[in-house]
Design brief:
single chain; alpha+beta; FAD/NAD(P)-binding domain; eight-stranded mixed sheet; 32% helix; globular; oxidoreductase
């Protein structure tokens, strides 16, 4: 695929560390973490701080996957509201899960503050924009549930959302002031830097090809023949999961998230578009999400085609959405186009698995990966250090491959096309 068709706005900082393929030498490690994204690096940081010996193995380069390619929205909560979570998981676990979900944005911004990470960020909130009466009622219900728990949130009417977004077509929405935006690649690279400084060894270009257990220890084999031994293994590969753990890749449907970025907006336009610096996700079936970048561009993303892009036309649906929301941007150039891979689970919840003792896997970010995986990594490290399952906010569940998985992706592609058509009728 030509490089022009994957040209992200986020660029690796010049001061970013380079990680070589060298592995930890000798002895048995406490943990090997497969995957150098936000989940793997957060786990590594907190495990190393707890005194564990840790090796991170990244098949490509740190930040090259979804952790460095996403939209940089840091959103607390889950897809489901507190009352649903309590009803589904029971009062004790449900309440604990609500508390955890409420804390995930804090996990990111506290880390940036406490570790003095060189990460551009704005923490002025996230808006869930409603374009139908049904979506507005759902926003009111969500607002009620979080407000009763003391969250800094607000229901927006049509005038308020127009003033905050400058966009056309919304009836109202919901503002969650706990949220914000970051540069996701800078954050991922800084997370790697502090994890390394804490004692975690990070190796790039080290694809894991086999896991086996011998005398209670895991043998981790990498491409090229090198082997490590560890007491525990954490698979933090998410949408890039392959056949390393049988059945795991069949529990998720990988999707492509496409994004575009405009040229820096002229001052006159910039003043009326997201003047408060909030991030936005809308309520459409195939939603779009958008924000301003630190250098004054509008960055907008949404679901793309299931196949790899082959031309700039594969981003045309996002350009149409941009002009639908902001007609005044019709003459502004689109300077960046890129995509990343995300993982969808059938129930829209993250899944934690431990199919064998001390072999752990995490999949499913559901659009909240920056905060969710930052916070979950700390809990996972706590579990590695203590063995206490109470450290984990989600229950450990069996690996259940999706029936007819090969056909599920085709069905998702057809559903995306159908939903996009329905959305078009609701303009």
């Amino acid at each position: 695929m030509p490089a022009a068709f994957s040209d992200p706005i986020w660029q690796k900082p010049k001061t970013a560390p380079a990680f070589k393929p060298e592995l930890s030498s000798g002895g048995t490690l406490d943990a090997v973490i497969v995957g150098g994204g936000i989940m793997g690096l957060s786990t590594a940081l907190h495990a190393a701080r707890a005194g564990l010996s840790v090796q991170v193995l990244e098949a490509a380069a740190v930040g090259q996957g979804a952790s460095g390619l996403n939209g940089g929205q840091v959103i607390p909560g889950l897809k489901y509201d507190p009352e649903w979570l309590i009803g589904h998981f029971g009062k004790q676990r449900g309440e604990a899960l609500v508390d955890f979900a409420a804390s995930t944005a804090d996990a990111v911004f506290d880390l940036i503050r406490d570790e003095k990470l060189a990460v551009p960020f704005t923490r002025n909130g996230w808006i869930q924009a409603a374009h139908t009466e049904t979506a507005l009622k759902a926003a009111a219900n969500r607002d009620r549930q979080w407000r009763t728990r003391g969250a800094d949130v607000k229901l927006l009417d049509q005038t308020e959302i127009a003033a905050l977004t400058g966009a056309k077509g919304y009836l109202g929405g919901w503002l969650d002031r706990r949220a914000g935006v970051i540069d996701p690649l800078s954050y991922t690279m800084e997370l790697a830097r502090v994890a390394s400084a804490a004692g975690a060894n990070i190796a790039e270009q080290r694809k894991v090809v086999k896991l086996s257990k011998e005398a209670g220890l895991w043998r981790v084999s990498t491409q090229g023949g090198a082997e490590l031994r560890a007491k525990s293994v954490v698979l933090a590969t998410n949408a890039y999961t392959d056949g390393l753990l049988p059945g795991l890749a069949q529990t998720i449907v990988p999707l492509h998230s496409f994004q575009i970025a405009t040229a820096p907006l002229p001052a006159g336009l910039a003043a009326s578009i997201l003047p408060g610096g909030q991030a936005v996700s809308d309520s459409r079936r195939i939603l779009v999400y958008y924000r301003e970048s630190a250098d004054g561009r509008l960055v907008l993303g949404g679901r793309g085609r299931m196949a790899l892009p082959s031309s700039a036309s594969d981003w045309a649906h996002l350009e149409r959405a941009l002009i639908r929301l902001y007609p005044a941007l019709a003459g502004i150039a689109i300077e960046k186009r890129w995509f990343g891979r995300v993982a969808m689970t059938p129930d829209h919840l993250p899944h934690l698995h431990e199919p064998e003792k001390s072999l752990l896997a995490v999949v499913g970010c559901q659009g909240r990966g920056v905060g969710l995986m930052s916070a979950l990594g700390k809990r996972m490290a706590g579990y590695l250090a203590s063995g206490d399952t109470r450290q984990l906010p989600f229950p450990l569940s069996p690996i259940r491959p999706i029936p007819f998985h090969a056909f599920r992706q085709v069905g998702v592609a057809a559903t995306i096309a159908w939903y996009r058509m329905l959305d078009a009728f609701e303009r």
